[in-house]
Amino acid sequence: MNHDFDRVLARYNQRVRDEAVIQHGMPFSEIHTRRDEFLLPIGEDVGWFLRALVIARRAKRIVELGTSYGYSTLFLADAARVTGGVVHTLDIAVDKQAYARAQMEQAGLCEFVAWRPGDALKSLQAIKGPIDFVLIDLWKDLYIPCLELLLPKMSDNGVIAADNMLFPAISRPDADAYRAVVRDKSELQSMLLPIGSGVELSCVWRS
Ligand SMILES: C[S@@+](CC[C@H](N)C(=O)[O-])C[C@H]1O[C@@H](n2cnc3c(N)ncnc32)[C@H](O)[C@@H]1O
Questions:
Q1: Cα of 131 from ligand 1 centre, angstroms
Q2: What is the DSSP secondary structure assignment for residue 167, as one 8-state letter?
Q3: Confidence (pLDDT) at 1
Q4: pTM score above 0.90
Q5: Residues 6+ apart with CB under 8 A from 88
Q6: Tens digits of residue pLDDT in 60-78
Q7: Which atom of ligand 1 is nearest the CA belonging to 39?
């Protein structure tokens, strides 16, 4: 980490606070309709946790499903800087990725990120394995189809972190369905971590 990272994170966190003010009292239906305006970030606790996990795992090929404006990318890219890896970050919203790219440039982390605009279900087919670490954080109905595409490419002790398992409430049916699927896979060991919006952490374990 360096001062550029700190400055970019501070700016993101200011935007998180500003958006909380805008969203205060707003009906959830309106937040949902306007969701592309907002960061929808994993939050700082989860960001630091995932950064530590990527470094501890010495993950090199990292995949992020859902760049949004780059809040989570910042932590993953900084971890990739430490491990000598690359974050392949996927988002269907090209304008959001452009914003994220500008932030990574300012943080001095662009060389550790491969930008993959477009539908994740298509982009994932072009990503080679073995994948060491994945953050799944796109629209919730896509978690299971993305998991099925990812799993055969995961390295033998890869890690998959899936966000929004507990919040928001509207995502619970999709989150519960995802958790049931990962727990049914004999090659995954999974647990629910009550940090941030709830993270399902699944470790690949092939005997
Ligand atoms: C919750 S946000 C990601 C937040 C980000 N991980 C962070 O912590 O800052 C979900 C993102 O998934 C993206 N998304 C939705 N459907 C997608 C698809 N089919 N392929 C790729 N990205 C998609 C949305 O554009 C949105 O930016």
A1: 19
A2: S
A3: 64
A4: yes
A5: 61, 62, 63, 64, 114, 116, 127
A6: 999 999 999 999 999 999 9
A7: 9
